[in-house]
User: What shape does this take?
Amino acid sequence: MAHPLLPLAIFLLVLGVFFGIAYVAFTIASDVAAKTAHKMEDKNIKFSKEGMKIGMKEMSFEKEDAAMQSVLVKVWNYSSWPAYKSRFWNKQKPTTQGMKAEQQRKSS
Assistant: This one.
């Protein structure tokens, strides 16, 4: 004959295992949430009860001008205008092909 407290002991054991697994899952989830929030705060994104707030990184005018100048210089250096001949700084005489193309443009 089984002891009358045996079903209660089994129930408490199963309940303890369930709560143990739930506690481990909760601690892992809260740890991941804390690490994610910390990484997002490094990128000026903050979470609160009201919602998400995004901060702006300050950039001085000198850094902004330097970045814009860098972009413009890169665009200028990587662009090519093979058919463009300025009459102000390119003092070479046009080639015969260029003269023919210009005459065709003027005639049409």
